[in-house]
């Protein structure tokens, strides 16, 4: 099994979403036989999708300058990691009701027409199929199933767009509400992880 772990917190240390992603991957690889690739988007930030990147992507490969080819190669590397994975584990904290800029940059990198999705007469079709995705979602407040949870629709929409439809979520909320709330959130998240992994193994 090939596992790709994406840590999207802005913090390299002390991140709850990373802690949960680590725990999920450790249990997935309990027998030590999996190949695990970890991408820490704080320690290894990916460049944002700007005008320079767009120009490089829309220039035919044989016409790209060395600088443009190098920029596209950065995205190619992330796409290759996603394509090679059997399971993708994403640590996704909520920042200001949405995903982090780090995760958005990863999303922008792996969304490539003709590679990870394609347009058809009946609409777009995702090409990153046959993979399981587990997303560890962490929040300072309580947002699940409420009107302030604008993060979850974004995650579901993007992942489905590129073909990642077998997605399960682990929630850990209330980390800004005091020590008791944190303890409850962590205990609840641990139970969710066990349930999700039982389903993955089924």
Describe the structure.
- By secondary structure, the protein is α/β, with parallel strands linked by helices.
- It has a single domain, classed as Flavodoxin domain (Rossmann fold), CATH 3.40.50.
- 41% of the residues lie in helices and 20% in strands.
- It has 6 helices and 7 strands.
- It has a 5-stranded parallel β-sheet with strand order 2-1-3-6-7, with helices on both faces. A two-stranded antiparallel sheet has the order 4-5.
- α5 links the parallel β6 and β7.
- α1 runs parallel beside α6.
- The longest helix has 23 residues.
- The model has no long low-confidence stretch (mean pLDDT 93).
- Its cofactor is FMN.
- Also exhibits azoreductase activity. Catalyzes the reductive cleavage of the azo bond in aromatic azo compounds to the corresponding amines.
- This is FMN dependent NADH:quinone oxidoreductase.
- Keywords: Flavoprotein, FMN, NAD, Oxidoreductase.
- Belongs to the azoreductase type 1 family.
Write the layout of secondary structure elements.
Elements: E1 2-7, H1 16-28, E2 35-40, H2 51-57, H3 66-84, E3 87-93, H4 101-110, E4 117-120, E5 123-126, E6 132-138, H5 151-161, E7 166-172, H6 179-201
Helix pairs in contact: 1-6, 2-3
What's the structural domain tally? 1
What would the CATH topology be?
A: Rossmann fold
What percent of the residues sit in helical stretches (DSSP H or I)? 40-55%
CATH class: Alpha Beta
Organism: Pseudoduganella flava
InterPro entries: Flavodoxin_fold, Flavoprotein-like_sf, FMN-dep_NADH:Q_OxRdtase_AzoR1, NADH:quinone_OxRdtase_FMN_depd
Domain Flavodoxin-like fold: 1-195
Binding site for FMN: 9, 15-17, 94-97, 138-141
């Amino acid at each position: 099994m090939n596992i790709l772990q994406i840590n999207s917190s802005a913090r390299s240390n002390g991140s709850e979403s990373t802690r949960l992603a680590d725990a999920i991957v450790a249990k997935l690889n309990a027998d030590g036989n999996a190949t695990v690739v970890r991408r820490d988007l704080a320690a290894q930030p990916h460049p944002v999708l700007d005008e320079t990147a767009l120009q490089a992507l829309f220039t035919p490969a044989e016409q790209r300058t060395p600088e443009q080819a190098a920029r596209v190669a950065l995205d190619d590397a992330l796409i290759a990691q996603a394509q090679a994975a059997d399971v993708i584990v994403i640590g996704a904290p909520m920042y200001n009701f949405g995903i982090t800029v780090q995760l958005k940059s990863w999303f922008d990198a792996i969304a490539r027409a003709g590679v990870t999705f394609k347009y058809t007469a009946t609409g777009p079709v995702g090409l990153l199929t046959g993979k399981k995705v587990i997303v560890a979602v962490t929040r300072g407040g309580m947002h699940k199933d409420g009107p302030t949870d604008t993060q979850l629709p974004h995650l579901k929409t993007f992942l489905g767009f590129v073909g990642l439809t077998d997605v399960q979520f682990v929630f850990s909320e209330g980390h800004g509400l005091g020590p008791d709330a944190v303890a409850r959130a962590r205990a609840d998240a641990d139970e969710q992880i066990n349930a999700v992994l039982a389903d993955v193994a089924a």
